[in-house]
Each structure stands twice: as C-alpha cells, then as structure tokens.
C-alpha cells in the first residue's frame, strides 16, 4: 500500500532525513527541481517561455532551482517572486540569490499571454492559513492566464491535510508530488485542482518515518497478492459459500447484482435468499445461483442459510418493512459468520442502533454518505469535512469495519485507515453499491480476513469501474458493466 501523508507527517520525514540521516536539504531541493523539470518535459509542456512564480518558503526554493535548471538548458525562464522577502527560508534565499547571480530576469506581475508555461511554487505543504490579499490576486491571475500550469508538490492554496481550498487555489494541469502523495492530492476538491498527479522520488523514503508510519494508506496493485489463492485440486465446496440476503418485491436487481458479483469474485457457491416473487427472474438472470425463496422468510430458513454459508451479505434492495426488520434482527443474532451490512440493512440499523451489539461476528458496514448521516447522526457537511476521522471514530466505537462510500471511499477499523483511489463518477449509478457488497461477501466467503476483504473489495470494485469508464465511458456505464469488467480485473493480478 502507498502512504498518504499529512503536512505534519511530511515535515517529520523531511526533518528526519535532513537532521538525522544528514542529507543536506539543498540536495533534496535539487532532486525535487530536477525531477519536476523532467516531468514537465515528459508531459509535453511547451517550454518556449516559462514563468516560475515563487513564494518565500521551500516550495519557492524548489521553484527558483527549477527556473535556474531551465535557464541553463537555454530555455527562456523568468521569475516572479511573490513572497515576503523578510520570511525567506534559508534554502529559498540561497536559490533566489543563485538566480540573481546568473542574471536571470525577475518580473513584478503577470502580463497576459506572454508565457507558455507557468510553474506554481508559491506554497507547498507549508501552507498554514487561508490565502488572502496579494497572494489571492497572484493565484487568481495564474488561473486566468492561458499558459499551462505545473504545480510543484501541491497546487498553492490546497490543504495537504484534507484537499480543501484555503480561500483560493491554483488550478494545475500537472502536479509533481514530492516524495509522498499528500492527503490533499487524493481528497476532493484537491484532486481536481492538482490535475494529473505524478509521484516524484527525491530521496525521502519511508525510512524517514523511523517506524512511526503515517496513519492513512492507499491500496495499490499489491492488493492482488492478498487475494485468495486457488488450489489446483480445489472444488466448489472449498472455494467458499456466500449467502446474499437481498432484493424484495420490485428489487430483484439488487439480489442479482450482489449475488453475481460474489460469484464472479471466485466464490464456489452463491445462495440468494429473497422473496418468492423474485424466483423466476433470478433463475433466468442468474442460473448459477442456489435460490432460497419464501413469501415470508422464516427464522428457520434464515438460520439454515446462515449455517450453510461461510459469509453473508444483507441489505441490497431488502426494503425496510417489518419483515426486513425481523430478517435483519435474526441474522444479527444468529450469524456465526462474517457479515456485510449494506443499504436497507443500514437504514434499519439507523432506527435500532443497539442492534449492532447483537452477536459477535465480524461486521463490515458499507454506507454511502447519505446512509452514514442516518447511521451516525453527523450532518453531511461534517462528514464531508472530516470523513477519515469520523469514519474511524464510528468504527472504533461500534467495533465494526466501516466502508464509507464516496468519490473517495474510506475503509477503517478504527485504527487502520485506507483511502481508496480507484473508481470514477461513472459509478454513481444505481446498483453499483450492490456489486461492492457482493464482491466483499465473496472475498470473505473465500476466507479473506474482514479488513483485507473490505480493502481489496473496494479497490477491485473501483478498478472495474475504471475499466468500464475506458471501454464504455462514464456516461453510458451501468452497474452491470462493473460485473462485465470484474473478471478481466481479477485476471490482471
Ligand atoms: N524541507 C526540505 O528541505 C524540502 C522541502 N521541499 C519543498 O518545501 C515545501 C515545504 O516548504 P515549507 O515548509 O518551507 O513551506 P512552503 O510550502 O514553502 O510554505 C511556507 C511559506 O509560505 C508562507 N505561507 C504559508 N501559508 C500562507 C498563506 N496562507 N498566506 C501567505 N503566506 C503563507 C509562509 O509564510 P510565513 O508563515 O512565514 O509568513 C512561508 O513563507 C514542500 O512543499 C516542497 O515543495 C522540497 O524541496 C524537498 C526538501
Ligand atoms: N464520483 C465517484 N468516484 C468514484 N466512485 C464513486 C463515485 N460516485 C460513486 N462511486 C462509488 O459507487 C458506489 C455507489 O454505491 P451506492 O451509492 O451504494 O450505490 P447503489 O445504492 O445504487 O448500489 C460506491 O462504491 C461509491 O464509492
Ligand atoms: K505549489
């Protein structure tokens, strides 16, 4: 997994590498500048005429060093120093002086239309307050200018900690994230302001954390190595049994999507437990499933289904009526297997929060933001502001694994926090959450540990969404396209 750092965690690593390992900060700065220039070249920036806009901190220092490297390559690179000269950091002051010694041109404003590329080196991870006054004007003038913008480390004005816009922020085409991606590169709206973001190695590695690692990680292709292995001599009994309790009258699709997703994930057998009216539909759409259907599902039927399964998912399209309430209460009380609770199961839980205490099997809750509002009592605004903290606090308090679904989904058990970066807005379409429930239930049924199953499920679900976006497009894709792409995604590992 990849570490996603806060400004403070980045500062700690910087400090350790410079002060404890003894790497001079100017060496790091030179590497940052060289890697940034290389990235601009690789990304096809038109370097006919470049303006580097530098502030007075080390982000500005990176900018001065980049300007000098470009200038010495024969590129027309000019500088606009917009910082407070009395607050220049030692390194930035030295880099500025070097540019002056070379006789480079400093400008005092941003004439329209004269530059092909602007380098934004006003603020980096040291942004400490809202951007106001002349800094605001500088950033707005950069945004108005037609030149393509490259942001050093993070667009100026974006908080490294949560991706928020601190008053105003630079809109970059490309961002070179130094050493680690900050949370602000991944969380919205920071992600959009950063444009295409690339990680640049400048010699600060995880050794800089000295064993005190950042709190948040993002899953990467390493996830594939966690997936259940398939023994050559295995049979459908050994590849796990998943039970999906889903669908109600007029909601057969939710049972189909979640059940089919569990099957595609590699589960040996999938049982769908649903209302009798869905029987024919499911037998036609999903002949691979074992069906358990009754007009009114009895407690005995539910208990039998649970004792057959290795994991169960409950909630997609379940409805919230009395029968559904009874079903959920029975499952929470009787289940001895890991459970995924989604959609209507969560809506019912919001009315009976104490039900979470029933039973002692591992529980994975997968609310979207609206469901989380009802479940947690926090407002949407609070959740949007602090999704990581509030998700972790809920998971800890209720001793569950929480998958808080949004454009960036958070998975947490209260201690570990994972922020998923796969997926796209094409997935904001009915039924895509049902597919996720099926994937996670399928992975659990094959014996994955609950936290790993939740993280892997969210990652694979997002990758399926990304493949669907490539092949079908974000507008036209449907949740059935996620099912179509999932086998190929699983084959990539
Ligand atoms: N450590 C290293 O050697 C390495 C660091 N690296 C680079 O350093 C960057 C971090 O550098 P940093 O810590 O100096 O902070 P930085 O982002 O330049 O900002 C601080 C300046 O901005 C100012 N300021 C802040 N907010 C403001 C506001 N709202 N409105 C107005 N002013 C505001 C603040 O002013 P002051 O508070 O002093 O008035 C100060 O002058 C990092 O992103 C990476 O690019 C790499 O070169 C690798 C090696
Ligand atoms: N803009 C987006 N970027 C990435 N993923 C998204 C975006 N919008 C929605 N998703 C994902 O799509 C899924 C939608 O789930 P949910 O709202 O429960 O759908 P439904 O209830 O229709 O099944 C979640 O996994 C969510 O993370
Ligand atoms: K910047």
From TrEMBL:
Residues 219-493 form the YjeF C-terminal domain. K(+) binds at residues 59, 120, 156. The keyword Transmembrane does not apply. It comes from the Bacteria. Its cofactor is K(+); Mg(2+). Keywords: ATP-binding, Isomerase, Lyase, Metal-binding, Multifunctional enzyme, NAD, NADP, Nucleotide-binding, Potassium. (6S)-NADPHX binds at residues 58-62, 124-130, 135, 153, 254, 317, 368, 434. Residues 10-210 form the YjeF N-terminal domain. Binds 1 potassium ion per subunit. One of its GO terms (biological process) is nicotinamide nucleotide metabolic process. Its EC number is 4.2.1.136, 5.1.99.6. Belongs to the NnrE/AIBP family. This is Bifunctional NAD(P)H-hydrate repair enzyme. It comes from Fusicatenibacter faecihominis. The lineage of its organism: Bacteria, Bacillati, Bacillota, Clostridia, Lachnospirales. The gene is nnrD.
